[in-house]
Amino acid sequence: MTGPGWLSVVTAVAGKDLRIEFRTRSRSLTMAGFVVLVGVLFNFSIDQALVRPQDIASGLTWITLILSGLIGVGRTFAIEKEDGALAGLLLTPAPRDAIYVGKVLANFLLVYAIVLLTIGVFGLFFRLDYGNHPGALLGILAAGTLGFVALATLFGALTASTTLGESLLPILLFPLLVPMVVYGASASGRLLAGRPVAEVAGQGRMLAAFAVLAVGAGAALFGQIVEE
Amino acid sequence: MTADPAHDPATGAAPDAAPRRADGLGVHALRRRFGPHVALRDVDARLPEGSITTIFGPNGAGKSTLLKILAGSLRPTEGSVTWRGDALDPRAAEWRARIGVLSHETHLYAPLGARENLAFHTRMHGLEKPDLDAALARVDLLDRADDRVADFSRGMRQRLALARTLLHDPDVVLLDEPFTGLDSHASRLLEGVLRTLRDGRRTVVLITHALSEGLALADHVLVLVRGRVAFEASADGIDPDGFAERYHGLVDAADVPGVAP
User: What is the pLDDT of residues A87-96, one digit of tens each?
Assistant: First the structure.
């Protein structure tokens, strides 16, 4: 008996989650709608004669990433709870860390697509100049998104089995996101201000390390959390 | 009341001294608590290999708890499980590759099609080139293979769940109330599929309230009442009417205040 391959389980779980999302659009439409509404509200609430949007765009982008991500990732286990799908998944010999990484992969692709939408919406409303290093900015946001999604998926599994459910998720998650937001908002703010990439390389490495640590910790703990 | 392996004049059950195959699944002094509630109380039982063991019992008797422990979904508070006489860790991946579980919940993804659900399950078991068409035909769902499960009736979902349960050709099949909510057509189809499992190779544990269906399929019978084994016997030559009378007597006795637990 060979058992399922680790990578095969990762791609199967991610593919299944994305296929379900593509069909139901339950999370992506809500997240996209939230981003557009936030863009509209920020557009009206910020007096652009007094404040340069370029100076606050980084912070707004990270806040939007986290809040819209919470909406999406918070519901990642909703479909798994229907008719005991997760319980069925756990009755198979599939490695628990591979199931977790598959869900993180699907959530990352979903949230990162929303991050790209956020950049587009904010660019439209605030006429932002993404500077000379859009690739570096996207890289910083990708590392931040991965770190966020890794923790949110893990805590989403934890809170899905509680009566408080999704309302408990931000309370558990936000304190752990502080270092990521500090490094991420600072790095992307500098890039938006036109500073050189070398100036944010250290912050980028810290973000990447945070993301790797979050995925590793999530993979190690997921099995303990979802099993009784 | 504990198991009485002696010949039972009421049911006609034969002594169960000679198992069909050595040991099979065994549970020993199994105890499971949920807070102050004790679901299983020092359960000792043997579920012979290569046969169908039907477990009867009223609601709250601990049947599903026992099945979940065998499936590795729940840990016992005390006691152990053995397979062929050796200690078993029901949470081990090797064990999970050998079992198929059908429970109250279908474990299906409603937005996916029937074939997609089975294909996903094969990936979780690492199966190579599974014959999904044959699996769907076995439960009479081949013509609905590409339809979403969300559009299926309860009976169709249960049939698909059965196909998923058996897809990886498990050695041990654990079935929790598989007849619940099924119409007569689906019940007959399910019964037919369950009969095919009686191949002498597979160990089947069936939990049901349906005395006649459960008895008709059983090689071995177990009755749980209030978390204890109240009756255990081979199903050979068992008289259905006598068994029903005995079963209701056991359940009624347990309901009398002061008699049980």
Answer: 999 999 999 9
Amino acid A35 reads V
C-alpha span between A115 and A218 (Å, rounded): 22
The DSSP bridge pattern shows strands B172-176 and B203-207 to be parallel
d(Cα B97, Cα A92) in Å, to the nearest integer?
6
Q: Are B90 and B81 in contact (CB under 8 A)?
A: yes
- Which among B46, B151, B171 has a CA at the least distance from the CA of B101? B171
Q: What is the distance between the alpha carbons of residues A174 and A217, in angstroms, rounded to a whole number?
A: 17
Interface of B with A in 138-167 (CB under 8 A): 148, 157, 164
**Which of B64, B102, B109, B127 is most worth mutating to test chain A (most A CB atoms within 10 A of its CB)?**
B109
Residue A66 has pLDDT above 80, yes or no: yes
Nearest to B228 by CA among B78, B68, B76, B61: B61
For B48-145, where are the E strands, in sequence order? 52-56, 78-83, 86-87, 99-102
Q: List the pLDDT tens digit at each of the 261 positions of chain B.
A: 344 444 455 555 554 444 444 578 999 999 999 999 999 999 999 999 999 999 999 988 999 999 999 999 999 999 999 999 899 999 999 999 999 999 888 999 999 999 999 999 999 999 988 899 999 999 999 999 999 999 999 889 999 999 999 999 999 999 999 888 788 888 888 888 888 888 888 999 999 988 888 898 999 999 999 999 999 999 888 888 889 999 999 888 876 544 444
**Closest chain B C-alpha to A227 CA, distance in angstroms:** 7
Closest CA–CA distance from residue A21 to any residue of chain B (Å): 9
- Listed in sequence order, the DSSP H helices in chain A are 6-24, 26-45, 53-73, 78-81, 85-90, 96-126, 134-160, 168-192, 201-226
CA distance A154 to A104: 9
Residue A74, both tokens: 């918070």
Token code pair at residue B234: 């081979």
Q: If you measure CA to CA, which chain B residue comes closest to A87? A: B107
Cα–Cα distance between B74 and B68 in angstroms, integer?
5
Question: What pLDDT, on a 0 to 100 scale, did the predictor assign at position A2?
Answer: 66
Domains of chain B and CATH, by start: 5-11+19-254 (3.40.50.300)
Q: Kindly give, in sequence order, each residue whose CB lies less than 8 Å from that of residue B208, ignoring residues fewer than 6 positions away.
A: B54, B55, B56, B175, B177, B178, B179, B214
- Among the partner residues A3, A9, A23, nearest to B97 by beta-carbon distance: A3
Tell me what ipTM this predicted complex has: 0.89
